[in-house]
Each structure stands twice: as structure tokens, then as C-alpha cells.
Amino acid sequence: MKITLSIIKADIGGFVGHSDIHPAVRKCCEEHLEKAKKDGLIIDYSRGEVGDDTAMIMSHTRGIENEDIHRFAWDTFIAMTEVAKEYGQYGAGQDLLTDAFSGNLRGMGPGFAEMTFEERPSEPVICFLADKTEPGAWNYPLYKIFADPFNTIGLVIDPSMHEGFRFEVLDLIEEKQIILKAPEDLYDLLLFIGSPSRYVIKYVYRADSDEPVAVTSTQRLFLMAGRYIGKDDPVMMVRAQSGLPAVGEVLEPFSFPHAVAGWMRGSHHGPLMPVGTEDDTPTRFDGPPRVVALGFQLTQGKLVGPRDMFADKSYDNARKMALDAADYLRRHGPFEPHRLPLDEMEYTTMPSVLKKLEGKFTASKEKQKK
Ligand code: F6R
Ligand code: MG
Ligand code: MG
Using a 6 Å cutoff on CB, does residue 257 contact ligand 1? Predict the structure, then answer.
């Protein structure tokens, strides 16, 4: 059976500040999802969250970017915003950038990651949800999962993975894309995805098939809104096992809390800390950035799960490393490399600060002498 999995996510208000979601807002989302299932719009669902972001994880047979599914998600976010306003939630409706829905969610604010595939006899899927970071945060783990034999031994010893994987990489600034294949194009691939603020992996495919095995949300709010709104807090879905990386290989990259852009005011580098759902509430300096992993066995479109994959003890060292890295970076205060480099600050609130200083700048003495 061909199934589409859609994760559609948005921050529609935080409890308290940008750290969590109010129970009444959660309830509203659950009710809408349950109704969509009853009405036959979707086969199944699971509501996920991380920090102040709600993710609707839905299975259906309508394909990606389907108008009915996207409209449902939009209407649900609007309803949740009403509840968020009632409870005075911070930034209620902050990710909903337009008033009227028009066909699909492209450019409207909410992020989405969707893929359609033939469901295998057993289909393990991991949904990753991150808060206080941007879509390029997935580049490092996707590279490790699908291209690095030091992470994924299956690339070496499983004959069905030996041909490698193809990566669809988007240039978010020039709106171009390129497909690069590992291992053949490894160095070219790294050249791009090593700059995650601009180049992001959208899909991963097996070498011999156009069916996606992983997908990310690549929406960047500042590009849509033309002003700083907050970080995009991306999601990712990865299929696992039987000729694909094993669940343990999919989770392994997160044993290193790599540095990502985001954290306080979307303007700082910090470690991406893997956490169980109990600990998904970024608090210290609005962070540090974090990621949860919800595991499902998909069967006949039913989402059996979730299992809270990062609740496992084996991620304790990664958390410790992340907290130590957070201490180290925080001591830089407003200095780079904790604070993002200048060119990236242009996408946050920096331009409005600079505007005030316009006219105060004069030519330097060196220049005047010329
Ligand atoms: C980062 C984030 C927060 C806010 C910060 C300031 O993605 O959401 O760190 O940027 O709390 O928020 P405002 O400007 O709304 O007071
Ligand atoms: Mg928020
Ligand atoms: Mg958020």
C-alpha cells in the first residue's frame, strides 16, 4: 500500500515564553486530529512536540502537499491559536504568516516534511523534532546516517546498502537544487552541506529508487516573512532497517551534540542536545537547542507508537557533553563564535539596531588620508 507520512508543525504560542506548550492548546490539537481520523481524512496520527512547537504526524493516502491535508493543518493551527490567545500564551499564532489559506502551506509559515512510499511488511520510521534551531541542523546527522561508514556499518557490510544513497540538496538563498550521490560525490556534497544556513538536505533516496527514505522540513521563516520571526525549528523523518540504516544507525549521530545555529533569539551557536520527551523544554538562555526522536512501526498506515527513543540512558553522555559545550559557549557572551557571524545576524534583529547608528559612522582616518 502506498502511504504518505506528513509532519506539519508550527509554533502557535509558548508556555512560558518560548519554552513549552499549554495543556489546553495540546488538547485542542488532539481533538482536531481525532476528528480528522474519524472523518477519514487521515488514517492515523500522533501529536508530537518539542519546546514551543507542535508537530502533527499524520498517515494518509492523499500524497504530499495535498490541499485537504494542508488546509486541515492550517485550520487546526488557527483553532489552537484561539486557545493560545485565551490563555495569554506568548507569541500566540507567531508562525502563521498569512490570513487566508490558498492551496497549500508553502510560504505560509508552518513547516512540513512529507514523503510517499510503498509500505514495507515492517516499516520502522523515526520522526525527529527540534526546537531553537534551523533546517540545516539535519545536514550533519543525515550525512552520518547515509554516507559515513564510521556511523553506519551497514554501508560496508550490508550488500543492499553498498551502492550508497542520493541526496537532494536545496540552496535556500538562490532557490536551486542539486542531487549528489554518496560515495561518488562525497566531497562535493560536504562542500555544500557543511554550510547548513544556506544548503540543506531535503530528501535522501536509495541509489536505485526514486522513493524517499528520509525527508526534512526546509522552510525558513525569515525568507518567507522578510523579517526575523524566530528560528524554524525543523522536523525530519527517516525510514529504517531491511536495506536501510538500522534504527541504531539512524540514532547514532545524535550521540555527538553537534553545534547548530539558533538558541537565544535565533542568534547563537549551541549544541543540539538529544532529549526524552520529558526534557523537551528549552529553558537555559532559551535553550540549549534540543531534539526528540519519536519511533513508530507503521503498519497498514497505522502509526504504532511513539517510542521515546532519546529517553534511553545511552544518550546521557551526549547530554552531558551538550551541557558542558553550552557552558563553554555561554562564557563568550555576545562574542562570536557563540553569537552568529555578522552575515547571519542580518537575518535577525541586527539591521534595525544598525539603522539607529546610521549617520554616526564617518570615514576612518586611514580612508581620509587617501
Ligand atoms: C528563539 C526564540 C527565543 C526568542 C527570545 C526573544 O527561537 O524563540 O529565544 O527569540 O525569547 O523573544 P521576544 O523577542 O519575542 O521577546
Ligand atoms: Mg516561540
Ligand atoms: Mg520553537
Answer: no
